[in-house]
Amino acid sequence: MMKIVNIILWVLISVGLIVLLGFVNKNQNEQLLKPNNVRIDIDYETENRFVDEDDVKVHVINSNDTVLKNLAQFNILEIEKRINNNPAIKDAQVYKTIDGQIHVRVKQRLPIVRIFSKNDSYYLDEFGNVMPLSNKYTARLLVVSGHLNEPFAARYQLNYQFLPDSLQPKTLLDDIFILSDYIQKSPFWSAQIEQVYVNKDLEFELIPKVGNHKIVLGGIDFLDKKFSKLMIFYQKGLPKTGWNEYSAINLKFKNQIVCTKIYN
């Protein structure tokens, strides 16, 4: 008998919850959405300020609308899609709350290097994807310039995430990304290296913040060994000779560093 009573009790509770949730959902969707009921949370963990609340809110509420709409008229998936079309945004999550608000959580893309190509300029982000410049904010990053002809449009039109590795055309930007990512992940080298120059042979030369020398890196092969040699030279060689003794430090040769001295 008690078993039957428990079953009936659980059925009544379940039905009650369904009715209550239906009522709450109906009540929620009939609420009018006011502009101040849109809550936007932008990930500002870094100093980047490529987007602000106005950039996001315009995709939720059209400022030209003179009539308020209720929550049922807002398509969450469509709003997310519009926000994610912003090239500075990595991800957007949108949801409604029981008190009649729309919440938007936004994560910005993280650029790691700025490219100065032949006719345009843009960023590469943390995944190696191109990212356009912003008229609102300029990120202070490692800079790559020189003999570089990698148009933004040619790279941007390809969706590299869905191309098999065998079909992905390798460009100089791939090497630039590998080098920039290596530098960016090192606290010392990210503080010391401020520019990468691509010479006429399409090899890399590094311009440091401290010292009047350039660092001839060559290609991106054996990056660990090259930077380890340079670190040892910084620690043991330059303190004896001085940081302004050489015009060039060449890392291209195996197991040695070739320096060009400055002659006054």
- If you consult CATH, what is the topology of the largest domain? Rossmann fold
Low-confidence stretches: 19-24, 159-163
Number of discrete helical segments = 7
Q: What radius of gyration results from the CA coordinates?
A: 28 Å
Order of helices and strands: HEHHEEEEEEHHHEEEHEE
- The CATH architecture of the largest domain is 3-Layer(aba) Sandwich
Beta-strand percentage range: 15-25%
Give the integer mean of the pLDDT values: 82
Overall structural domain count: 2
| Main β-sheet description | 9 strands, mixed
Count of DSSP strands: 12
Helix content: 25-40%
> Structural class of the secondary elements?
alpha/beta
Give the spatial strand order of the biggest sheet.
6-5-4-7-8-9-10-11-12
In brief:
The protein is an alpha/beta fold and 264 residues long.
Write a structural description.
With 264 residues, this protein is an alpha/beta fold. The chain folds into 2 domains: 22-108, membrane protein fhac (Ubiquitin-like (UB roll), Roll); 111-261, Cell division protein FtsQ/DivIB (Rossmann fold). It is built from 7 helices and 12 strands. It has helices at residues 2-29, 53-57, 76-84, 152-156, 172-184, 187-192, 223-241; strands at 38-42, 89-96, 102-108, 111-116, 121-125, 130-131, 142-146, 193-198, 204-208, 214-218, 246-250, 258-261. The strands form 2 sheets. It has a 9-stranded mixed β-sheet. Strand 4 (111-116) and strand 5 form a beta hairpin. The longest helix is centred in the first third of the chain and has 28 residues, at 2-29.
